[in-house]
Amino acid sequence: MDKERFERGLAARKSVLGAEYVEKALANADDFNREFQEQLTEFCWGSCWGNETLDRRQRSLLNLGMIAALNRMVEWEIHFRGAIKNGITREELKAILLQISVYCGMPTGVECFRIAQKVFAEIDAVK
């Protein structure tokens, strides 16, 4: 493992997804999936998100579309929250979800809007 790339990935992962979420994922790693968590942190977050050619807003935009197309809604919600942390506005998120609905299908759009409403309700309840 490249320790520098891992640390860069760990910092990016915590910044986008939240330190609590990431620390829990790493703490819950066992002998079976620990290597996967390390690879995920090093390569996905260290190599990809750590590359500064695209900023985090751009990466969030891409991820929302790709993860929706793959219909991975648990991961989509995590990255939707990350997109908010990365400064994507509600108006921009609505436009993204409308485009997801057209290109990924209305059932996917329905699920994405459902998740978005739940996340916004949680955020608004804290304010």
TrEMBL record:
Superkingdom of this protein's organism: Bacteria
Pfam families from the UniProt entry: CMD (PF02627)
InterPro entries in the cross-refs: 4CMD/NDH-1_regulator, AhpD-like, CMD-like
Gene3D superfamilies noted in UniProt: AhpD-like
Signal peptide (residue range): none
Residues covered by the Carboxymuconolactone decarboxylase-like domain: 35-117
GO MF, one annotated term: peroxiredoxin activity
Name of the protein: 4-carboxymuconolactone decarboxylase
Organism, as annotated: SAR324 cluster bacterium
